[in-house]
């Protein structure tokens, strides 16, 4: 399982922490965490309310537990959580979104408030990345479908996006369009050795 291997790599090799949201592609993890929180009776461990913005108010609630640490078939779980986001819109129907997840941070390393903040940052990064994947790479219409092709090409695209953002690029789409004009521009931008040559092979 890719997420399981990634969790081990982050904690055991990089000596860092992970924050994962359980999704449909991790059905067992999602089912186990959601089943526990479906029976909760206590008040949220932390609640935040955003300031009204253009007739839109948002409330976020989080419940956290350590009781699943030894039960979940997932490495290095230190806390599991449930987050409920309720959006109130003026003259419109309110919306409610619930998310479940796990983190390797212990209660001493991350309070409920900090986990909620981590989750918000996580989704802002995810949304930004998905936007670039959809609009710059047109990923939804990609025809790569065999074997590990879809997974590998997505990883390469995310690697390219991450590389540009690490260099301080704000507009990834614009920078990629600029670099696409010439392989030499890419090599120069990435500061790859000038000894590298781009050769065109002419059949003959």
What features would you describe in this structure?
The structure is a single chain. The protein has helices spanning 2-13, 27-37, 112-135, 149-166, 172-179, 183-189, and strands spanning 19-22, 46-49, 56-65, 79-89, 95-103. The protein is α+β, with helices and mostly antiparallel strands and 204 residues long. The chain has a domain at 2-108. A five-stranded antiparallel β-sheet has the order 1-5-4-3-2, with helices on both faces.
Give short descriptive properties of this protein.
204 residues, alpha+beta, five-stranded antiparallel sheet, 5 strands, disordered C terminus
Helix count, DSSP H or I runs of 4 or more residues: 6
Shape: globular
Q: Percent helix among the residues?
A: 25-40%
**Largest beta sheet: strand ordering:** 1-5-4-3-2
For the largest beta-sheet, the strand count, sense and barrel status come to: 5 strands, antiparallel
Radius of gyration: 21 Å
Mean pLDDT figure: 79
Unreliable parts: 193-204
Query: How do the SSEs run, as a string of H and E?
Result: HEHEEEEHHHH
Ends apart, CA distance between termini:
47 Å
In total, the number of strands is: 5
Percent strand? 15-25%
Question: Helices and strands in order, then pairings?
Answer:
Blueprint: H1 2-13, E1 19-22, H2 27-37, E2 46-49, E3 56-65, E4 79-89, E5 95-103, H3 112-135, H4 149-166, H5 172-179, H6 183-189
Antiparallel strand pairs: 1-5, 2-3, 3-4, 4-5
Task: Offer a concise description of the structure.
The chain is built from 6 helices and 5 strands, in the order αβαββββαααα.
